[in-house]
């Protein structure tokens, strides 16, 4: 009798611990967007580190941190001006780079892992449409059906302020005039009310911005718990 009681108590304890773990492991897909040098990579790393420190289940950071694939390496060589590629081609390569990570992303998200992406399909659309010969609808098409972010954090920073930050101008698209066009494309994308866009002031200190981003991320992780993963632009 006592043995049964101990076994029952043990099962209840394990169930309670499992439920507590699932609450802590509430997953979300979070995208950081903005013009170049807005601080997305820094804030993405800090968010992942903070979530990991608080026990969130193995958060991951993707794009452009992982350019180890053949497609990713080709993109990198294009951005640093080692290779020239036709505009349609590079747009589709960026999309292909996202799609080749989708199986892993879905697996992790279904396991309760939060994923933070440093740029996503929105950057692909904004940068290509800023070139002037591409409409937003065409630019979106290759990414239709990607995992839909639960939160898109837009790091608001003027191109003039971005140009004053270190290493601006090192990559192909880093000119103030082009970044202004990119910014306007982002504003058009933010008109889509089916997506959860949140603007944050990227001119704040790194620490203040981190606190705001972390708060928004944690709030979203709780809100989307047990909700199915959506598909982008569908």
Please name the defining characteristics of this protein:
single chain, 234 residues, alpha/beta, five-stranded parallel beta sheet, transferase, ATP binding
Care to describe what's here?
Helix 6 packs across helix 9. The protein is globular, with a radius of gyration of 20 Å. It is built from 10 helices and 5 strands; from the N terminus they run αβαβαααβααβααβα. A 5-stranded parallel β-sheet has the order 2-3-1-4-5, sandwiched between helices. About 5% of the residues have low confidence. GO terms for molecular function: ATP binding; dTMP kinase activity; nucleoside diphosphate kinase activity. Its EC number is 2.7.4.9. Keywords: ATP-binding, Coiled coil, Kinase, Nucleotide biosynthesis, Nucleotide-binding, Transferase.
Oligomer: single chain
Principal-axis shape equals globular
Total of DSSP H or I helical runs spanning 4+ residues = 10
Number of beta-strand segments = 5
Low-confidence stretches: 14-24
Give helix and strand order, one letter per element, not per position.
HEHEHHHEHHEHHEH
Strand content: 5-15%
Gyration radius (Cα, Å) is 20 Å
Overall pLDDT score: 87
Q: Tell me about the biggest sheet? A: 5 strands, parallel
Query: Which sequence of strands runs across the widest sheet?
Result: 2-3-1-4-5
- Please estimate the helix content: 40-55%
**Cα distance spanning the termini:** 57 Å
Summarize the SSE layout with pairings.
Elements: H1 2-24, E1 29-33, H2 40-53, E2 60-62, H3 70-79, H4 87-99, H5 102-110, E3 115-118, H6 121-129, H7 136-140, E4 151-156, H8 159-163, H9 176-189, E5 197-201, H10 206-223
Parallel strand pairs: 1-3, 1-4, 2-3, 4-5
Helix pairs in contact: 2-10, 3-4, 4-6, 6-9
